[in-house]
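S.,

As promised, the zinc ion run. Input:
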Amino acid sequence: MMHAVVKASSGPGAVFEQWPTPKPGLRDILVRIEATSICGTDMHIYDWHESIRDKVKPPMVMGHEFAGKIMEVGKEVSDLREGDIVSGETHIFCGKCFQCRTGNAHICERMLLRGVDTDGCFAKYHVLNEQHAWLNDRKIPIEVASAQEPLGNAVHAASAAEISGNTVAVFGCGPIGACLIGLCKSFGATKIFGIDIVDYRLKLAKDMGGDVLIDGSQQDPVKEIMRLTDGRGVDAFFEMSGAQPSFEEGFKALRPGGTAILFGLPSKKIELDVANWIVFKDAHVRGVFGRRLFGTWYKTAEVLKAGQVDLSKLITHRFDLEEFSKAFALMKSGRSGKIIMYPNKKHA
Ligand SMILES: [Zn+2]
Ligand SMILES: [Zn+2]
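Predicted complex:
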């Protein structure tokens, strides 16, 4: 048995309790989790948010972002060894469907999500199939390796629009939005607007390289963006929050012919003014989900190696895994960047 953060029943909260240590199958690896990080999805599961209720079947172990050491490999594992430091892709693809076989495994037709549809990694040990693992460079700090999954989201989003020489607006400056700001900076954006309603997040956005930070609860982002782009609007708008006002402000602040990248997940259906925000503007609108497999992971690893984004600036808090309820409360307050938890108590 091992200790794990378990979503024990349908309703808010989770418990720290004993759970059977998973056993690796023929093509699986058993990983001792050295660091694991909390994501917005975990927060939704913890709070029993309506967007996730139908998907999660308690009891289950939560969590999907991690880095750890391989302790055991299945008999048919060919490319990984005991002692390797790995992370895992959250999108558990089948490898056999149309999408997987045409280079789009991140939108696999039979996809399962780690820590949503399956047991996760908020535990001492976690088992995953070799094909969903990512071998980390040993030079990358273990906490950064855990948090590279959301950086991967940002890399995927940034790759969907032209950044170099362009103005961009990032609506929603949580950890993924802040990573995106760091990437836009290093990819050569000429002016980066960061918009949020939490001052802590605006500070993170500034630390990551944002040029103009706008508190949407105090100022009108559309007016500010128009004022600072000669009345033209931004070349690219990234919606990272899923909040209705961000869609409205973002599309209004987008210049005609510009690109809108939609990443944030609204908790319910929202209204879009298709005629004015998209058609008359001849706007390019693109949804992005997860990371390309595994192209985005290779790119993300290179970004980290080159020091183009300093993820350590985004890691603001550390807890032992058993203090998970404190960690979740902090995350809910909005006054944190990436929060790391340690199932094997090594961070002191
Ligand atoms: Zn995540
Ligand atoms: Zn598939």
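The first strand starts at residue 2 and ends at 7. Residues 154-287 form a domain with the Rossmann fold fold (CATH 3.40.50.720).

- D.
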